[in-house]
Amino acid sequence: CLVPLISSRTGASSPRNSRSLPITSTPVYFGPVYFGCLENGTPVAVKMLSETSSQGYAEFLAEAQHLTRVHHKNLVSLIGFCRDRKHLSLVYEYMDGGNLQDRLRGQESPNWLQRLKIALDSAYGLEYLHKSCSPPLIHRDVKTGNILLTSNLEAKLSDFGLTRAFSSGTRTHTTTQPAGTLGYLDPEYYATSHLSEKSDVYSFGVVLLVLITGQPAIIIISDTERTNISHWARHRLSEGDIDSVTDPTIRGDRDINSVWKVAELALRCTEHTGRDRPTMVEVVEGIKESLQLETSSRSRRCSSDGTGGLEFSDCETVGALETELIGETSAH
């Protein structure tokens, strides 16, 4: 059923009495993003449709109604939508942990186990869009800035469907102006303007490389030279040295085989041709295998010498993840 329309009188706070969120990445047809509260005190994020958008109200309403029907635990929930005089906006659940891009750059960067769990959560969300939505929903802008986190580092994919829903010419998979973010953009899509689920797979492969390396999607080599992380990592990994690309903050606290498995998966995802890339179903399975390697390694360290140099809470997390993975495998 439809989520009820939310107005500024009965629902989310209006821009005049709410504060702007500095940690949101949204397409150009959206204006400011605000933090607000519903009448019951539920915190929300309010994304305002830009006044320069070509989207009409009827189109906005139809697409917003469609997006309110997309539900998955690893997708940021669209609570509703607003029309207030000249303003159109989308109202989303508020994620209090910020986004993955900022978290990786912060002082408390996630460890390798946490990064794997974030990757798996995000992959589940993207798999749902591709496999369980009818017709399949292509995200078009998968990146670390669009992976939002709770305070417990549970990850949800945000801004799915926005590029298709709120830009002109949305009824075809062939576009005249490729949507996406530099560094994450599928080169095949950029060259041909033909969009598919494999375009999202490429972008997700870049996300995996960012998680491994801690580097941005576009790496600055010198004042005059920049390169895409997929080219940079592919060249270095071809020499067989995983440590040369691994983020120094996780280098001493990871199972090397687990990192290698994700690196190889990321390289498959970022193949130049879409038909050579895996599906998101295969990506999910690959990440789960890597997570099992990591949890097994940490479990051995916890049992061999008390906590094996790990914090007690880390050992508890390992145990919980092992139980979760076993449960998911049995369910499948």
Automatic annotation (TrEMBL):
Keyword line: Kinase, Phosphoprotein, Receptor, Serine/threonine-protein kinase, Transferase
GO molecular function, one term: protein serine/threonine kinase activity
InterPro entries registered for this protein in UniProt: Kinase-like_dom_sf, Prot_kinase_dom, Ser-Thr/Tyr_kinase_cat_dom, Ser/Thr_kinase_AS
Cellular component terms per the entry's GO annotation: membrane
One Pfam family named in its UniProt record: PK_Tyr_Ser-Thr
Protein name (Swiss-Prot/TrEMBL): Protein kinase domain-containing protein
SUPFAM superfamilies: Protein kinase-like (PK-like)
Subcellular localization(s) per the UniProt record: Membrane
Keyword Kinase: yes
